[in-house]
Amino acid sequence: MIATHMAVLRTRAVAHSRAPLFLDTAYVYASVNTRDQWRDAALRWEAYLAAERRRLVTTEFVLTEIADGLANLRFRTQAVQIIAALQASGLVQIFPASPRLFAAALDLYRSRAVKEWGLTDCSS
Question: At residue 31, does pLDDT exceed 50?
Answer without folding.
Answer: yes
